[in-house]
Amino acid sequence: MTIRERSQIQDGQARRVSRLDRYFRITERGSTMGREFRGGFATFFAMVYIVVLNPLILSGPDGSGQTLGIPQVAAATAIVAGVMTILMGLVARYPFALSAGLGVSGFVSATIATTEDLTWPDIMGLIVVSGLVMFILVLCGFREAVFKAVPSGLKLAIVVGIGLFITIIGFVNAGFVRRIPDSAQTTVPVNLGVGGLLLGWPTLVFVLGLMLLIILMVRKVRGGILIGILATTVFAVILQLFTNTPASDAENPGGWSLVVPDLPQQIISFPDLSLFGNVDIFGAFAHIGIISASLLTFTILLSVFFDAMGTMTGLASEANLLDKDNNFVDANPVLLIDAAASAVGGFASVSANEIFVESAAGVGEGARTGIASLVTGTLFLITAFFAPLSNIVPFEAVAPALVMVGFLMTSQVRNIDWADWGIAIPAFLTFALMPLTYSIANGLGAGFIAYVLIRTVQGRVREVHPLMWVVSVAFMVFFLVGPIEQLIGA
Hints:
Blueprint: H1 3-24, H2 33-47, H3 50-57, H4 70-92, E1 98-100, H5 102-110, H6 120-139, H7 142-149, H8 152-173, E2 177-179, E3 190-192, H9 201-218, H10 224-243, H11 283-288, H12 290-318, H13 331-347, E4 353-355, H14 359-364, H15 370-385, H16 395-410, H17 421-437, H18 440-457, H19 466-479, H20 481-488
Antiparallel strand pairs: 1-4, 2-3
């Protein structure tokens, strides 16, 4: 090969890299391919548990006694998460991963699925409808306008709330913090370990993993979060070989939290796709009436709408991707993919898909572009065929990353104007209620309503954006759905 030919090849490679860099804005956002790949892996490990957990949440029967099937839901969960996360990377070019939202799945399973005469296709039809409505709201510009209407101080509170939320998720998933049973007759809702004591080998895995991650982050080790997750997973697998610790239950509270880090006997399994398209969009409206079905759709819509808003704001702030007014840059493509994911999740019978707060693990690892989402999404698609391998990484190995990223996000609390009670009180309610109610939407609703109320009392109504009034009224309806249903006999 001549020098000229070699030079032409190198020039062609440089142009390809340059086009890739320009499209994903890798250099512009201060990232590198290495950071993006590490971030993609970190996000995947932080949220792969959803492939195991979502099928268990949706495992109950519907109003007719039919079930969806755990293997079918697991396969569909992984495939939809993979496809929508890849689309997020390609189209929106942000490091946000999507999967079935646990809040919506829990609401669907515990509330809607118990409604007599409603079948799973009817229920998933409601989710499709809510996703389509949200998609239309994005196209109309309403959703992005709401983003810009939120005061800067409340946006900071959202970041803090997300940080506290993923921190408590980390502590609870690791069994470090647990709920006290109602039979204890105590006003304290959570407790350290079991009866105030830390029990079990899995808790040791979490503690050692957290200590390792603190050391790596303090020493500013490149790839510290991913190194911490992988190292803690290896330790957990080795420990399990010697201890044979079972999953946690009432008789064995010191066991692993859902995922037992066993080496699988079977590695490859072809995914069952039978749930795709098993949806009746108008079934719920026919079976329980237009008013009742509309209320359920509204509840799902509002939850998904503002869960995503809070998560996006928190992640973008942590990644330094907000503008000087704390507004989201190029939000519309992200919102469109998120809305489409909600409808696609219903179409696949795995519940509404939404941006996952665990994407913070990848952002904390340095991910700033859609390259990380391509990596995460590809790993989810692979998981659909290698589902048994997803059981190797226990919650206890991922939880330290969530706790430390939560710390980084919570540090934004210093930028809130605590002297202005019109911001301070709503901000406090926002970030206090997110972890305490296990819901981003609940925190947002309380904060928005309090902001409108206080500004009105202060005589500063002109500072309240009209959309804040609209959203606050919507949240009041959201919080009063129960009494409204009782009032109309729904």
